[in-house]
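User: I'm writing a tutorial on reading structure tokens. Could you give me a worked example: one chain, its sequence, then its tokens, then a sentence or two explaining what the tokens reveal?
Assistant: Sure. Here is the example chain.
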Amino acid sequence: MSIWFTVTLDDRPGSLARVATALGDRGVNITGIVGVAEDTGGALMLTTSDPDRTREAFGFLGLSFEEHASDDGSRIAGMAAGLADR
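And here are its predicted structure tokens:
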């Protein structure tokens, strides 16, 4: 079973880099990623090698997030479509 996380990023240079750096600093690998950019922000959906450390990194950054558990590829496609609709 995979845990997918959805976070909203600010529309400013380095927002995605901050997330990637916080994960990398904790030894977390991004194993899947989908993103949508909008005029004033964006949403990122990702799965990682360590959900607990991912939650820790998001907490450190003060990012609110949603979690989606999935063991079915069709559900992932549905979540990605929902992300695109945002």
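What the tokens reveal: Residues 2-85 form a domain with the VC0802-like fold (CATH 3.30.2130.10). The first strand starts at residue 2 and ends at 10.
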